[in-house]
Every structure is written in structure tokens, then in C-alpha cells.
Amino acid sequence: MSHDDDGLPARRRFLAGGAAAAAGALTGGLAPSRGRAAEAGPPDIPEWMKVPGADVGSQTYGTPSRFESGVIRNVPQRLKQYLSASSRTPLQDLDGIITPNGLFYERHHGGVPDIDPARHRLMIHGLVETPLILTMDDIRRFPSESHIHFLECSGNPGFEALNGRTASDLVGLVGCAEWTGVRLATVLREAGLKPEARWVVAEGADAAALTRSLPIEKCLDDALLVYSQNGERLRPQQGYPLRVLLPGFEGNMSVKWLRRLNVTAEPAYSREETAKYTDSMPDGTARQFTFVMEAKSIITRPSGTQRIAAGFNEITGIAWSGRGLIRAVEVSVDDGRTWQAAALQAPVLTRALTRFRLPWTWDGRPTVIMSRAIDETGYVQPSFAALTAVRGLKSFYHNNAIVPWRVAASGEVTNGYA
Amino acid sequence: MSHDDDGLPARRRFLAGGAAAAAGALTGGLAPSRGRAAEAGPPDIPEWMKVPGADVGSQTYGTPSRFESGVIRNVPQRLKQYLSASSRTPLQDLDGIITPNGLFYERHHGGVPDIDPARHRLMIHGLVETPLILTMDDIRRFPSESHIHFLECSGNPGFEALNGRTASDLVGLVGCAEWTGVRLATVLREAGLKPEARWVVAEGADAAALTRSLPIEKCLDDALLVYSQNGERLRPQQGYPLRVLLPGFEGNMSVKWLRRLNVTAEPAYSREETAKYTDSMPDGTARQFTFVMEAKSIITRPSGTQRIAAGFNEITGIAWSGRGLIRAVEVSVDDGRTWQAAALQAPVLTRALTRFRLPWTWDGRPTVIMSRAIDETGYVQPSFAALTAVRGLKSFYHNNAIVPWRVAASGEVTNGYA
């Protein structure tokens, strides 16, 4: 690629703040506070160059820099208990589409079990020709596959929870990883499905024995039994040593610590698909088995609690759809009056986070910015008003509304709902 | 996808061990030691279901299960010092193509500096119109990109180092991640290149002030200034807060802890491109500036120190090429006499690890298995004999020979070179 054909704006645009540059540039249009000329000579030799650094990794698993100690999962404060609770991915601090395992959101219903993989078993029974009990070694002998997919809690955020400060507060119950495991279809075929098989009831080996009914069509499509995430074995918080992954479906169905698959003709109507994880509608009825996570997006930079300067600012964020590929993301920098197509970072993968970006020169005046995702089915992410016009305000799950960020004259960014 | 059109072999093949299944199957062709029938009832409730598990992540960065404590970077034993040393990615324990940051290989020349990002500066000077000194905040204001690429040390392995036991011992100086940063071309354009600019001399802020000369063509092509790896900020071992990434080039050129880019007409002829990182040839001359990492592959499962059972075993591994896409990987299960095309896991990305797989039914007889990568230029990974016929044995760097694994009648897998 040559110097000229990369589609980027002309030289020396990015650090030239709007008003600041015109008034105070030292050289070449550079704002003095952001990039300075170096004629005065190189910076001092920092102290970290004057002494040897730390030894090569001393038989431990690596960790981030101490200067990043604030980048951790976002755990709600002052809960009555933390056994059935969640933590959120710090989306506003992350780049790209891969969520590192140490920062991937969690949701537990009976705490995180400490499972010895040598003693873990998966039982497959019910409407099968040959019931099976498999060890982890058995499961790792099957043909494997790896796929990059998002995973998202269906309550991300709940309809009442629009008062968060950060992107993580609002939609941090999502992450994206490269998952490796066995196609669930392969294991079900090993047992042999009987013709009347319609559901697979999955049970976790946690203290809640979390149970969900999985429709057979999904189990025979892209569903996986996963043992690795981002190269390494699943973390305990993600279901070590074995979980289901139903790409694009609400996260609760991707049962962790998987110990049992009971093949049935009817769903189990478990707690997690009756008392919970149903959608209360305005007319008093409830939608059940609303599996698919609809298209959603959020701007992660700039986002709540961040502060920007006038001039060039890249707008970037993530989009995803449980129905497949993201076709487009549109961004508004004028509170929804006009929309521009953002660039999508390749690779754009089905049921994975997709990173979008839009160059933006902020004029320093207060405004509201927001994004909306459009998926391959043509579905367009709705505004909160449009969503609640249909769904009402009794719902908790499956809120995929547009998230607006307010930008003040000071450059401070805050939640546009609040 | 239906039950039948997924291209997998017929039901109940995978757990049916060859000889073992014929002799001892309980039901449905299952080897008794690997998958057993469940008519006797479900397994006992394990103790981890009887008590609540651990609380949701308590304000810390997550870590792997204690049962995976042996999966760490592979650090050589009994070195005289560990400041200028390396650690290797545990390839045989990993799946997919993403290397988690906690396990990514390291190579340091003066230890790992502990850099405060607020005080870090990047100076760009030499043959530029406007010298610049940039803060990390400045760098993060430029337009960003994310790309999945491998990074590999050029001495992976050295020509003399073929006696390792594991895949990590042999070629563990490689990893693959999603990198986010700014195109180097964008930053150079901000400074303005003078017409005579031909090289960019990059200097690290470590105690070694590691210095390499980067050809301008690469700097204006796909080179990046990287601040994030797999979503989060670079680890200290990977150059926190800023490094160069030259996709496909030898790892040493992707200068870590980057503090200076000096644009020049000639290379610097630094230590790392004269005394080191040149290739001694049989005629006594040395090749210099051999930047590109040629196509390579290795089978990671089964691989050295692992043990397999007769019957179905998936062969899987990784392939990569500094010249672009992997077009094909061929696998031999008969010591190189015949070769079969392996399946490549999508997405296949340029200058990234590519996961390959081949189903294999092992008959229990001793053999040797190996893989060879073919890249989009048509280049075929050579045998060690073919490589040394050209390169001799005086070289240390750029050994991309085929790695054979010996499979004994016992199922034990060992280094086929040893």
C-alpha cells in the first residue's frame, strides 16, 4: 500500500485541535498541549531505561501492568449477596473485538464451583439410542471447531437500568471470544437421537443446577460444547471445564459447568424459563423462549465518564446481532437528526462483536452522539422510545435500545438517558 | 444446518477405539474406558454442587482454574541470567488461533521495564518536516485499527535446538493476537516524511534501548503502532504502553516500549541487525535484513509428551506465513510418504495463525506424523534436510523446517528429530 492510497485524511489533521490549533499552534498546526515539536531535543532518558527491567516471566501466568489495575470487571456495589450476581466487561477500556478472559463478564446463580476436570462427567440420556457418560478426555477426542462469537446476558441492560455512568454500566454484560469445542450435534449423534427428540435439557454442575431447555434445531446447528476460550481452557467463571455455547442466543442458555443433557419431547419449564427469563408485555401476558439477542450497538469511545477535546476524535464502538452478521452501523453526532455509515473493521464474523469507527471533528458545541446497528436480516436497532412503544416498561430482558451519549461544552461525556 | 449435511462421519465413530472397541464395547461400539453407557443411572452428585460456589469476581482481574496451574509460559531452566532471555507459548495446551496474553511468549534484551504511561513519550525525528513528541493520549487520538496477526521470534527454533520435548520447546516463540493501534503511516504522515526517507530507526525504552531499522516500505504498508492486545492494553512483557508491530516480519523488529522513531536514509546497523539477527551461510557470508518469517506449521495435538489411544484421533495444529495467507496445510501420517490436505478453520487471515485439522484413525502401529504449510505465494514449508542443504548448519535464525512427531506403539508421542 502506498503512502497515498490508504483512504486516510491528509497529513497533520489528527492532532490539530479545532479552535486550539488556530490560536496556539507551535508548528504545523499542532495544538501545543497535544503533540509538541521536538526541535528542543529529545525527551530525557526515563529512569526505567537506566536499570535492568524485570526478569523473563518466572513460571507464573502473566498479568496486566500495575498502571492498568483499575481495568477490572465492574461489580455492583452493596448487593445483599454475591452468589447469584453478575460482573460486567469494562467495555469503555477495551479495543478490538476480543474480550480478554480476565475481563469477561460473569453471571452466576449459585456461585462459581471449583470443579476437578478429572472427576467431571457429562451424561447424555433421555430420547437417545445409547445413553452416554463422557469424561473430559472423551470429549476432547471428538473433532473440534473454533469460532469467534459474542455471548450476552439477556438483561443487558434491564429496562429499568438506564442510569449507568459508563458503557460497562449500561451494556457490559457482553463479551466476545474465540471458543473451541465439539459440535453439540456430533455428541448427540454419538448417542443417537430418537425421532421424537425436540428439546435438550441442559444442567450445570453448580449449586443452582442451572437448567435450560435448548431447542433441538439449534442443538443440531451451530451449538458447541466448549472447553476452551481464547486459546486456553475455560475460566471457572465461564464454566470450566465444559459449557454449552448457543451462538446468538441469550447467555443463560449457554449452560456452564455442563453435566447433563436430557433429550426430551417437551421443554423442562425450568425456573430459568418460567419465573425468570421471560418478557412481561404491556397486556399482562409474557413472552417465553425469546432466545435470540437482537441487533445492538454502543459507542465505547467517547463514552460516559470520558472527556474529549475539540478537534479530531475517532468515534468507535461495538455492534452485534444474534441473527448473524452486522451489515452496517450508523452513527449520529447530532442527537439522531442525521446518520452516517461507520466503517466496519474486518473480519466481520457472524454472531461476533463487530468494531465500528467513524472519524469526527468535534466543534466544541454540546451535542448527543449515538449508534445503531443493522444486521443481515435488515433489522435496525430501535430507539428506547420505539422499543417501549411495543414492549412497554414491565419487561426486564431483551432491551436492545440505542444508547445516546451527551457531550457537554467541557468535553465531558455522560449518559444521554440520565 | 441439518443433522446430515455437516460433513462429519457417521454416528458413533469417534469414541469407538480400534482394537479396544471390537473387543470390549459395552454398547453401540463404545470402548469401555472412553465413554460408557448410562443405563446404571446418572453419576453421583459431585461435592461442588452441594455447597454454594465462589462469589462473583471480587474486584480482581480473573485467572485460570487452579487445575490449569501447569499451563504457563515455558521458561528455560538454569540460564545464567533472565534479563536477556525468552519464554515460550505452551502451544500444546492451546486451542484455536488466539494466544491469551498471560501465555504469550516473551523475549527481552534488558528485562521488562515498568513504564508509567502518563510519562511515556514517542519522539519522531530525522528526515521529517516537523519533529514530534507525542504522549499516549496523543497517540490514542489518531484513527485506530485492529488486526489479528501472529508474532514470532526469528530464532524459533535455532538450528541447533531440535531436541525439545514439546511443541512449545520447539516453536513456542510464536503467538497470535488481535492488535489495536494506529497505522504507523498515519503518524509518519503527521510528521511529514522528507523525500529521502528510506528507513525508520525504532528504539525501545528498555535498559537495552533495543534498536532496529525498519524499511520505509513496510512502515507505509501494514505496520502499526500498537497499544492494545486482545482487547486490553499491552502487557508489560509485550511493550506496554506502546510497541511497533510489523506483521509477518521477525519479532525483534516489532520494537517494544517504543520511545523513538528516527527517520533516516540508511539503516542504523544496530547490534540487533549486525552481531545478531543475521543468517550465517555455508560459504562464510551472512545474510542481513532477512525480515520475513517464511511459512511454517506444527502439529500441536498429538505432540511431544502427549499419549494417544488407538482409534479416532483428531490431528490439529497451527500454520502461518509472513508472506500472507495460508493456502493449504498438508499432513502426513506415514513419515512423509503420502500427504493429505487438512481442513483450515475459518477465518483464515493474512499473517495470522491458521488452525488446521485432519481426522485420523490410528491403527496402533508406530509411525511418524508431520505437517507442512503452503502459503498464498505457493511456497512450501521445507524439510530440515532441504532447508539445511541450502542454509547449512551455521545459521541460528529463520529455521522453518517441518517438525516430525514419532508415535510409539504405546501411543507415546516424541520428537521425531531426537
From TrEMBL, chains A, B:
Region annotated Disordered, chain positions: 28-47
Cofactor: Mo-molybdopterin
SUPFAM superfamilies cross-referenced by the UniProt entry: E set domains (SSF81296), Oxidoreductase molybdopterin-binding domain (SSF56524)
Key words of the record: Metal-binding, Molybdenum, Oxidoreductase
Known EC number: 1.8.2.1
Gene Ontology terms, MF aspect: heme binding; molybdenum ion binding; molybdopterin cofactor binding; sulfite dehydrogenase activity; sulfite oxidase activity
GO biological process: sulfur compound metabolic process
Domain annotation Moybdenum cofactor oxidoreductase dimerisation: ranges: 289-402
Cross-referenced Pfam families: Mo-co_dimer, Oxidored_molyb
Class of this enzyme: oxidoreductase
The Oxidoreductase molybdopterin-binding domain, residue ranges: 109-268
InterPro entries: Ig_E-set, MoCF_OxRdtse_dimer, Mopterin_OxRdtase_euk, OxRdtase_Mopterin-bd_dom, OxRdtase_Mopterin-bd_sf, Sulfite_DH_SoxC, TAT_signal
Name listed for the protein in its UniProt record: Sulfite dehydrogenase
Gene source species: Methylobacterium soli
